[in-house]
Amino acid sequence: MTGGPDQWLIVHPDFSQPPITYISQVVAHIKMHLLRSAVGDGLLPFFGEAIGFVMNFKPDYAVRCDLEGVPVEVLEQAHRVGRCELKVKGRRYLPEEILCIT
């Protein structure tokens, strides 16, 4: 209802820059969007506490990093974020459709 993972969990780096800069671009984006609140720092709106991110480089190669961009694990496949759907009286609504409902 808020745009789903495409809105809140997926960061697209500037691909016109060299690949070596992708992780630092993502770190800068994350730091800009995390909330600081009375209940804790590093909260991602609608999802909770952020602990790191995964940078998918190829379908069979990804790197899991902490919030500072330090690699902590190499993955043998790209990471995919979960999706959900909304059904009302049997009709399925995609996140893109829900954003258009006023």
- Backbone CA Rg: 16 Å
Indicate the proportion of strand residues: 25-35%
Measured between the Cα atoms of the first and last residue, the distance is 12 Å
Overall pLDDT = 78
Anisotropy-based shape: globular
Number of strands: 8
Which residue ranges are poorly predicted, with pLDDT under 50 across at least 5 consecutive positions? none
How many H/I helices? 3
Question: How many domains would you count in the coordinates?
Answer: 1
As a percent range, the share of helical residues equals 10-25%
Strand order of the largest sheet: 1-2-3
Q: In terms of structural class, how would the helical and strand content be classed?
A: alpha+beta
Largest sheet, in brief, is: 3 strands, antiparallel
- What's the order of the H and E elements? HHEEEEEEEEH
Commentary on this structure:
It is a single chain. By secondary structure, this protein is an alpha+beta fold. It has one domain (4-100). It is 23% helix and 33% strand. The strands form three sheets. The protein has a three-stranded antiparallel beta sheet with strand order 1-2-3. Strands 4-5-6 form a three-stranded antiparallel beta sheet, with no helix packed on it. Strand 4 and strand 5 (61-66) form a beta hairpin. The chain is globular. The termini are close together. The mean pLDDT is 78.
